[in-house]
Amino acid sequence: MTFQPSFPEGFLWGGAISANQAEGAYNRGGKGLSTADIIELIEPEDRTSMKLPFPGRQDIEHVLDTEEDRVFPKRFGIDFYDTYKEDIELLKELGFKTFRISIGWARIFPTGTETEPNEEGLAFYDNVLDEMHKHGIEPLVTLSHYEIPLHLATEYGGFYGRETVDHFARYAETVFERYKGKVKYWITFNEINSLMMAPYVGGGLIPDVVPEGRMLEATYQTAHHQLVANARAIEACRRISPDARIGCMVIGMINYPNSPHPEDVLAAHQDMRNTLFFTDVFTKGGYPSYMNRVFAENDIQLKTEPEDEELLRNNTIDFLPFSYYMSAVSAREETTGEKAGGNLLTKLKNPYLEASDWGWQIDPVGLRTLLNQLYERYDTPMFIVENGLGAYDKMEEDGSVHDPYRIEYLKSHIEQMKEAIGDGVELIGYTTWGPIDLVSFSTSEMSKRYGFVYVDRDDYGEGSNKRSKKDSFYWYQNVIQTNGEEL
């Protein structure tokens, strides 16, 4: 007899966007500048790295002083601020059960330090959430998706400063109170482990606040404060909205050893800890023992408060949300070889995998393996909140967009999700990244498209902004209608 796994009834199919990549209206409605608002378009010839991965105060001031000569695509996004009704109606037609958005923190507290929130910002998200409920779509809301108020970065070094924990806690409580009953699923931080690779993007950390030679320590200090902020938000959510469920998101990464050489296997195991350190803390309620050696060998002395240990212990997550785009190959230090491209992550190329237009290696089976590893380790419900293929799409003369490569990518990953469910993994939902084309996080370009809906806008903000359905729109619509049975 052949075993046929299936998706559970009530599975949450949908898609995900972020405020800073979609909304636009960066200076309207009382919004303040965020750390994302000073990230520029990266031209093709400069795409080996981000232009501002780690800016100092002078860099930020220089960008703001010369902004008329620069292109900031995240400032205009896809005008979701004005088109949210039209866009949510399209998602309803797609059949979405859930839609992941983020709240722009600087839209609620423009500098992050105010004691009273910006009512116009709060009202905007009221309207978005009401529109989702009108169409029967369950909101999944992220508090901080690769942005914090810019003032908190220049004033405190973002979450490096303990003060930012208090400001975040006030912000979280404000939105929990405001949207109580409207939001059942919350995520505190987007891809919190990205901080270790991109400290400015992940935590607002700038070099000015870091003592010379103490960057690794400062990064872990920032991580500690974010983990404490996560715990405080969980505590507030359960107090204010006890029926809600809350999690903290990581970049889901699986690391393969480059060979059976024991040191390659060890390297893969240690690289996995870049993810597991964070998930261990917010699922198990404390720092894992392996971090003692990391801190000792790197002379890292974290500054903590007496209440931190109890906060972490008593406020663990309800579900584990993660993104999955690729796997990685780990090897001992002396190993050389061709590197694979990746957003924040560059490892050895896996010769058994194909890659996207941006060099991201495609590994659907790795998703099944990762789901099993995480579930076996934590016995916590899983939620894949980002997965998708960034590609160059072409609109034909008749307005159609044929994207069989995207359909094949998503189909292969959904198949492996179903297999993981058959393995016993409790998977509660799946939100593809960028169901409507939006500005890329890594390069701030529109050319890198993920959506089921094409947006007529280029890297410089030019175009009609018209929405058009791609072939994948109708494919995913049928996937949802059949609860994943027809792929």
From TrEMBL:
- Its Gene Ontology molecular function terms? beta-glucosidase activity
The UniProt keyword set, sorted, is: Glycosidase, Hydrolase
Which residues carry out catalysis?
E386 (nucleophile)
One Gene Ontology term of the biological-process aspect is: carbohydrate catabolic process
Concerning Pfam families, the annotation shows: Glyco_hydro_1 (PF00232)
Q: Which PROSITE patterns match?
A: GLYCOSYL_HYDROL_F1_1, GLYCOSYL_HYDROL_F1_2
Q: Which GO terms describe its cellular component?
A: cytosol
The record's similarity note reads: Belongs to the glycosyl hydrolase 1 family.
Official protein name in the record:
6-phospho-beta-glucosidase
Q: Which organism is it from?
A: Marinococcus luteus
Lineage summary? Bacteria, Bacillati, Bacillota, Bacilli, Bacillales
